[in-house]
Amino acid sequence: MKIPFNKPYFTGREAFHLSQAAITGKLSGNGNYTRDCQLFFEKKYGFKKTLLTTSCSDALEMAALLLEIKPGDEVIIPSYTFVSTANAFALRGATIVFADSGTLNPNMDASLIEALITPKTRAIVVVHYGGIACDMDKITEIAGRYNIAIVEDAAQGVDAYYRDQPLGSIGKLGTFSFHETKNITSGEGGMLIVNDHALIGKAEIIWEKGTNRAAFARGEVEKYEWVGLGSSFLPNELTAAFLYSQLEHLDVIQQKRLQIWQEYHSRLSDLAEEGLLFTTPCP
Ligand SMILES: Cc1ncc(COP(=O)(O)O)c(C=O)c1O
C-alpha cells in the first residue's frame, strides 16, 4: 500500500474567498485578507503583532534581519530540523552551532544548551518539532541569564501550546509555516510573530521592502519612502484569501488531524509494545 506523505485539507471556501479577493482588484499584499488573517492570530492567541510572509523561511530571514545578525555571531539551533532554520542565519554570516536532540523527541535537549553559549552567541532558535513544544521554561531561563534572544521556529506548531502558552508567543520572535504539508495551508506561506514591542515598527519596514508603507497605509505619514533595509516579504492577497478560508475551519482541521494521529497511534501500538518503534504521548 502506498501512503501519500501529505494530503492538504480543502474547506470548500477557498474558491469563494479567492474570487472575493480578485473582485476587489487589490491583488498585492497588505490588503483586507492579509489584515483579517493577522487579526485572527492576534485575537485568538494574543500575539502582539503578526505579519504574513511568503513562507516560514522568509519569516526566519526577517527574524535574522531584525536581530541584526552579522558575520562572527553564533546562533544555536537544533541539530534535527528543516534547512531553513539554519539558512536564515547563515545567510547573514552567522556561525551555526548545533544542539543535539533529547531522547524523547527531535527537539533540542535543553540541558545541552548552556555549554554551547559563548560571548558571541546572539540567538537560540528553538524548533517545536511536529508541534511538540521544547522545554521552554528551561530555555527561557538560560536565555534570560545570558541575555540571548529566543526565536521560536514554530513552522509545525500553529495552534499548539506549551502548557497554556501558544507556541510562537514565548520567544522574542516566532515563525509559522503555511506550506502545503502543514495543517493550515496557503500552498506556500508563513507568518512572523513579533512579541517584543520594540521590534514591531522595524519589522513592518523590513516586511515592506525597507519602506514605511505600512505606516502610510494607516494614515500615519503623508507619503511613504525608503527608511531602512528590507525586502519583499509580504504575500499577495490571493494567498491571504486562501489562508483565510482555512482559518475559518481551523478547529475542524485540527480535530481531523488529531483523529488521524490517534488512528496511527493505536494501530502502531503493538509494534511500540514490542519495542520495535517509539511513539510520543498524545499531543
Ligand atoms: C522546522 C521548519 N522550519 C522552517 C520550515 C520552512 O517552512 P516554509 O516551507 O514555509 O518556508 C519548515 C518547513 O517544513 C520547517 O519544518
Structural commentary:
By secondary structure, this protein is of the alpha/beta class. It has two domains: 14-248, Aspartate Aminotransferase, domain 2; 250-283. Helices cover 36% and strands 14% of the residues. The chain has helices at residues 14-24, 32-45, 56-66, 83-90, 136-146, 200-207, 213-217, 237-247, 250-267, 269-273, and strands at 49-53, 74-78, 95-99, 121-127, 149-153, 161-162, 165-166, 173-177, 190-194. The strands form two sheets. It has a seven-stranded mixed sheet, sandwiched between helices. Strand 6 and strand 7 (165-166) form a beta hairpin. Helix 3 (56-66) runs parallel beside helix 4. The relative contact order is 0.17. The model has no long low-confidence stretch (mean pLDDT 96). Pyridoxal-5'-phosphate binds next to helix 3 and helix 4. Pyridoxal-5'-phosphate binds at residues 55-57, 81-82, 84-85, 127, 153, 155-156, 177, 179, 190.
